[in-house]
Known about the structure:
Radius of gyration: 20 Å
Oligomer: single chain
Structural class: mainly alpha
Organism: Maccoyibacter intestinihominis
Keywords: Cell membrane, Membrane, Transmembrane, Transmembrane helix, Transport
Membrane topology: Multi-pass membrane protein
Largest sheet: none
Subcellular location: Cell membrane
Order of helices and strands: HHHHHHHHHHHHHH
Strand content: under 5%
Mean pLDDT: 86
Helix content: over 70%
Family: Belongs to the binding-protein-dependent transport system permease family. FecCD subfamily.
Shape: globular
Low-confidence stretches: none
CATH class: Mainly Alpha
Amino acid sequence: xxxxxxxxxxxxxxxxxxxxxxxxxxxxxxxxxxxxxxxxxxxxxxxxxxxxxxxxxxxxxxxxxxxxxxxxxxxxxxxxxxxxxxxxxxxxxxxxxxxxxxxxxxxxxxxxxxxxxxxxxxxxxxxxxxxxxxxxxxxxxxxxxxxxxxxxxxxxxxxxxxxxxxxxxxxxxxxxxxxxxxxxxxxxxxxxxxxxxxxxxxxxxxxxxxxxxxxxxxxxxxxxxxxxxxxxxxxxxxxxxxxxxxxxxxxxxxxxxxxxxxxxxxxxxxxxxxxxxxxxxxxxxxxxxxxxxxxxxxxxxxxxxxxxxxxxxxxxxxxxxxxxxxxxxxxxxxxxxx
Length: 338
């Protein structure tokens, strides 16, 4: 029985990995300018091709960013769902993404007004501060509110407050700043550079490694805090680690791509259904791959559905992610009534 389960987990991981590779190739090839797969391999080998600038300066960084940040978003959602024991907890729903967006907007307007160049690290730091502010309010509410629905409503309200402050900041920004803020605040993987990709790869890789090291304590935590304490798990330290790591992942996403909705909720649940288990040692890599697949697919649709007009990534992720959230809520309601 255990052997058949392990085979299923490996098959799911393999299929998710193949899907990521296939979607990376598809995203690079397809667009307003089609690039044949043969040209891509030729360019990698060092040969000159007609659309090399589009391939290396636009398509490749954008596709890699969608893959990395999509995985990070799903992993952040998984950590938050585990932390709150809440199936619809996620960076967007709990207002964490909105808090990160608010502080990044403040920093962008202030530094642009002072004609100061904004680095990738400065954006991540600003987004992390905003994410921690929102997370702090959510944690305060979670101590007073134990009902799942009320916690989600509290997170949505925090998100609205942060969004209102962001809109206020945009009102007093100059025209050039408004254009930059508007494009970023809608959620998009466009405009990515190799510097951005290098920074996000470093941050996400280190964070993923630390989360993976927490697989055993997380597995015990899922079975209850008392059980985890009996196994020698430091609950306080584990909860702090989950908050910090989920905030770092959320900050990295918002800093580079803006707020992206529903991926952090939908991807972990879809992956859990495929695996048939909630064991962290399998869920952590599967969540990352599942989030990458989700975002790569949605970004492909956002670029090509109404080309040359491009949709915001959050518009597409909401179309596929919102039904998953509704399904989760209906299923939990049925379980409570049974």
